[in-house]
Fold this sequence. Notes:
Strand content: 15-25%
Distance between the termini: 127 Å
Number of helices: 5
Structural class: alpha+beta
Mean pLDDT: 90
Low-confidence stretches: none
Amino acid sequence: MNTNSNTYTVIYSIVLVVVVAAILAFTSQALKDKQNENVKLETITKVISAATQADPDYVIAEDTDILEEYQNLISDAIFVDVNGEKAGQMNIGKEDKKAIEVASTSDLKKQNDIIKKIEAGNADAASELKLPVYVFNIKGQKVTVIPCYGAGLWGPVWGYLAFAEDGRTFDGAIFDHKSETPGLGAKITETPFYSQFKGRSITDEGYFGVIKGGAKDTEHEVDAISGASITSGAVGTTVRTWVKYYLPYLNKLAAESAAAQEPVAEEIVEPTTEEE
Length: 276
C-alpha cells in the first residue's frame, strides 16, 4: 500500500483511534473499582469531618483507617423522602467495612436535578426524592449529617451539615468544590469559613444566610468570604435549598428532642389507712 496516499492516512488514523480508545476503555474498566473506592473514602472523610466537629478534641490521625473509624462512629445511614419519612437504608458496614454504602457527589447531583424539577413546578418529581442522612454517636451525642449540592461560580459546590439533636443547631459543617477560584471562592474548604457554622442555627422555617459584608443576624447567618461573594452566596443558596427539603425530617428531630427534655410527671400515690 502506498503510505503516502490519502487512503493509507485515513485507515491508519482509524486504526490508531480504535486502538487508543480500546486501551482507554480497558484502563477505565480496570481502575473502576479503585476509583469507586477512592470516591467512597473521600465522601466518608468529609462526612466524618463534619460530624466530629461536635467534639473539639477529636483529631483524624494520618494513619487512621477511615472505614474503620466510620464503623465505630456511625449509628445509622438512611434515605428520607420529601415528607421526612424513611425511604431507604444504606449499609453502614458493621459486619464488613467493605460493604459500606454512601451517597457520592454523583448521587447528590441526581438529587439536585430532582430538586430543580420541583423548584421549576414539577410537583410529581417530589416522589423521586431520596435524600441521604447519616447519624453518628459522638461521645454520647447524636449528630445528624445531611449533604447539600449546588452550583458555584465555575462549577458545582457541595457540603455536609452536621446538626445537633435539636434539629436546628449546627454541630459542624464542611464544604468542597470542583473549580472555584484559588484564594477566593476555593476558601469555602478552609476552616475560617466553615467553622463559622458551628453553634449557629437554622430558623424554624429553614433559613440560614451567608452574608456579604458581614452577618447581621449572628444566630442564623455567617460572613461571606471577602472577594468571593458569588461563591459564598452560592453556598448560602445551596444550604437553604437542601435544608428546605430536609426540614420535615429535621422537624421530627426537633420534636423528639423537645419530648425528651420534658419533665416526667411523678405519680402521686394517695396514702392508705388501715382499719384497726
